[in-house]
Amino acid sequence: MIKRAISKLLFTVLLIIYIIDSCFATNPNSVIVANAIAQIGESYQEGQPPNKDYIYGAVFDIVNWTGGFDCSGLVSYAGNLRRHYSSEEIISFTTITTWNNIQSGDVFYTSGHIMIFDGHITESGVAKLKVIESVGSTGVREHVYINPEDINYGDDCYLAVNNYVPYHFRSDSSSPVLTILGSQNEGVFNSDITVSFIARDNIQTNQYDPYAYAEYQGTRFLTKTFSADGVYNISFHAEDWVKNTTDTLHKITIDSISPEITVTDSLNRLIPSGTGGTQDTYLCVSASDTATGLAKLEIYKDGNIWFQDSKYCGYLREDGLYTVKACDKVKAKFKTDFSRRIV
Questions:
Q1: Do 149 and 42 share a domain, yes or no?
Q2: β-pair type (126-135, 193-200)
Q3: Into how many domains does the chain fold?
Q4: Which domain holds residue 212?
Q5: Per-residue pLDDT tens digits for 2-44
Q6: 218-239 b/e with 16+ CB inside 10 Å = b?
Q7: Average per-residue pLDDT in the chain?
Q8: 274 burial via Cβ count (<10 Å: 0-12, 13-18, 19+)
Q9: What is the C-alpha to C-alpha distance for residues 206 and 8, in angstroms, rounded to an integer?
Q10: Looking at the structure, do residues 201 and 80 belong to the same domain, yes or no?
Q11: Burial level of 98, CB count in 10 A (0-12/13-18/19+)?
């Protein structure tokens, strides 16, 4: 009985650990402290690390980063966020907590500054909080402050006097939602098509979230008009604050040119439209479409459908007026390009 109870308790503990780990799979709390500690000693640099690609929502510009951090840059970088967020933006990814419930990896924020909580310590019998922060005087440092929970220190409690509030990062495993505008996937069109998109995320700070773009042949865009006949394979990418991503492919075809009809005799010689003939005239009728391929070939006799397929080779044995029509995949693009009367 005791062994069974112990086994059950152990299973419950492991399950709780698994659930917690899963919840924070995309949450910076699981990595932020270790990443921040690795930056101790780096200089304070306003606006660093920099961002790039603001037109698409911005990401870190690590290539052009010369080093150093400001306070929000350290939190963004250590938290493995997508870009350098301001302190105010970072708070939008958190929920407020209390001083007696803070966890390692939480952040303390007041207007103008943000820092990362590293853990509880006691110095000379005084409960203190260890943090990692980037400040102008020293750069990235590890520092300790009196716990605001200790009411005995009054004005000596820097965090309380300066109105710091503790925040806990939200867990976010939801990817952004992409909505393609202007055309449906696999659509075929007979005129210009303008393609754009809308990207939305469950947690957004402003117009820069999420990071999203469309791309065709290596060129990124927000909106683009396609005019020339052809097949276009367009990729779309969206990425939220903790790098949950959505990627999708979109194919459109533009076909503004009617199909070509070719009629030849038994010797493969072209037969012009409008000519007459006698019974038992041999014809080979085919059609081609350079953009999308032929969808339908039809031969009418005296206005009534007589043959329907992709190609006809055979004899016309009955009197009448034979007319050939071809329709490509745009469907509206019928072409009547040959008629022949058999008498």
A1: yes
A2: unpaired
A3: 3
A4: 177-254
A5: 434 444 443 343 333 333 433 433 444 668 999 999 999 999 9
A6: eeebeebebeebeebebebbbb
A7: 84
A8: exposed
A9: 47
A10: no
A11: exposed
pTM beyond 0.70: the answer is yes
Alpha carbons 111 and 109: distance in angstroms, whole number: 7
End-of-domain residue from the set 254, 282, 306 = 254
Q: What angle do CA 288, 289, 293 make, to 5 degrees?
A: 100
Structure-token pair, residue 164: 């710091």
CA–CA distances in Å: residue 298 to residues 294, 308, 316, 326: 11, 5, 14, 6
Assess if residue 2 is contained within a domain: no
Closest CA to 228 of 265, 202, 189: 189
Beta 211-216 vs 219-221: how paired, if at all? antiparallel
Residue 84 structure tokens: 């350098």
Name residue 121's beta-bridge partners: 128
Q: Are residues 38 and 75 in the same domain?
A: yes
pLDDT at position 309: 87
| Amino acid type, 220 | R
CATH value at residue 322: 2.60.40
